[in-house]
Amino acid sequence: MTTIQAIILGIIQGITEFLPISSTGHLVLAPHLLNWDIPKDQLFVFDVLVQMGTLVAVILYFWKDLHSIFTNTLKNISKPEGFKHPNVRLAINILFASIPAGLIGLAFKDKFESTFDNLSITAIFLFVTALLLFIAEKKGKQNREFEDIGFWEAIGIGVFQALALFPGISRSGATISSAMFRHLKRPAAARFSFLISVPIMLAAGLYTSMGLFEIANLSSFIGPMVIGFVTSAIVGYLAIRWLINFLSSYPLYYFSIYLIVLSVSILLIN
Fold first, then answer.
1. DSSP letter string over 100-129?
2. What is the pTM for the complete model shown?
3. Cα–Cα nearest to 53, from 79, 76, 27
4. What was the pLDDT predicted at 243?
């Protein structure tokens, strides 16, 4: 992997991790469309680790929220009425929403990796994401904030987050859609989607890091990984800010149309 390739993939990751159009789907497509011959083991590890850059973007953007959630949970969780505190409930919801993806990811890791560079499968799942966005926009009443989410609802959203293990299923798209199925407002659904990404992205990055030493010519691969990491962090921060503002005024239909066009185009040319 070259420096230019790392920068381009970092930009793609930064934009598509948070926009509901599937980062893994676009990271699978880019090497094929640009005719890059990147070893599969390098590409998979790069794609997971570069998500750590977008994790940094989430932490920086939501620093005040995360700090408040963490400190208030520590202060109140041991009190008799502690679980009624909004930040404690939110912390528990974030953890509950992370459980399904963690368990499913560990159980079926090899199967997910085997589909990672399959264009046809990616195209089909891009279409699935488009349908989720369309239905969520059509059916969601958008009259709730993310503080209203219950524990079981959080687990349900977490199940949708687990779907993003397939290339083409957008993590943010699946979780925003799931939250809107529960009638959250678009910006609230997006904020909850970003907050619940923190534990799972951190766990995935740390788990993948353990396999770094199995990569051939690792020393030549470290530089591109660092460059991709930094690029995705900067672009990801800007993407979060843009998307939350966008969703305050505009529906998900625009992303759904884009994904349908992309999916059909891939199937036609593949």
1. HHHHHHHHTHHHHHHTTT-HHHHHHHHHHH
2. 0.88
3. 27
4. 94
